[in-house]
Design a protein that fits this description.
alpha+beta, 6-stranded mixed sheet, 4-stranded antiparallel sheet, extended
């Protein structure tokens, strides 16, 4: 049991390290910078139709997706949005008769996360589109595949009642080199002019205002915290199991090194008083 818990914690740590949040996306151009690379999802096209609108069935519904051109049309074959919610939808969930279509994610509300490639899985980018009807969201997972511009799979609701609907696309747009095009490069900088007089120093910005911090993974501090918590969990749970079944302990005797943990508050207080006595240069009387 202890070994299982340790490997579970290790798996969570590795998964956290593999995922990295991306910068704030340009929702109008369907681009975002992740780990220093700009990904252009306007390159995603259905490999069969050549259109940026993807669609596919799952269960009792048809699912539709488009994140360029301000999202899905307000009405098209298989999907007719309510007129009050017809603009700016990235995802749609339509009934099989095509009479009703629910907005399940807005183009303007995006959060990007990138997962690095491993020995068994290609690099993937997850985009969450919030702002759907009654809290619905679209979770788009785009996996790198240099051989295609877009193969769409509708996964449906991730769990009953979750209101989160997963759609998967394999596309070259999620690869580091893109699909061979991408957004236009920025214009070259103008030639430098003559230096001017130095200006006053700029005031420091608020903590955490740097945009580069959004593309970093967990720092060393959080890694140490996760390792420490996992180690404590394994220590206590494994020790209690061992003492209960190997030494037939019960009650407080099941706690590993119970004498030490019982005396720990007194030891801490004793050390604090000793330190205070040294600072004040008075005699220390142990408890």
């Amino acid at each position: 049991m202890a070994a299982t818990a340790w490997f579970l914690c290790l798996g969570l740590l590795i998964g956290a390290l593999a995922q990295s949040p991306c910068d704030t996306p340009d929702t109008g151009r369907a681009t975002c910078k992740c780990n220093g690379v700009t990904y252009d999802f306007s390159q995603m096209k259905d490999a069969v139709t050549g259109n940026s609108l993807f669609q596919g069935p799952n269960g009792d519904y048809n699912y539709f997706f488009e994140m360029v051109n301000n999202g899905l049309p307000s009405s098209f074959t298989g999907c007719a949005f309510d007129p009050t919610q017809a603009i700016g939808n990235a995802g749609g969930q339509g009934t099989k008769d095509g009479q009703t279509c629910y907005p399940i994610g807005s183009v303007s509300e995006q959060t990007w996360t990138i997962t690095a490639a491993s020995e068994t899985n290609a690099q993937s980018i997850n985009v969450i589109f919030s702002g759907g009807q009654e809290g619905r969201q679209t979770s788009l997972v785009v996996t790198c595949d240099p051989s295609t511009t877009g193969v769409f799979t509708a996964r449906g609701e991730t769990a009953p009642g979750s209101l989160i609907y997963e759609m998967d696309i394999t596309s070259c747009a999620a690869c580091v080199n893109g699909c061979g095009g991408g957004p236009s490069p920025p214009p070259p900088p103008p030639p430098p002019g003559p230096p001017g007089p130095p200006g006053p120093p700029s005031p420091p910005g608020p903590p955490g205002s740097s945009s580069s911090s959004s593309s970093t993974s967990l720092d060393v501090g959080w890694i140490l915290v996760i390792v420490l918590l996992c180690s404590l969990f394994v220590y206590f749970v494994g020790g209690m199991v061992f003492l209960k079944y190997k030494r037939q302990a019960s009650g407080r005797e099941m706690v590993p090194n119970v004498e030490f943990w019982s005396s720990l508050p007194g030891l801490i207080k004793d050390g604090f008083l000793f330190t205070v006595a040294k600072v004040r240069r008075t005699d220390y009387q142990p408890l």
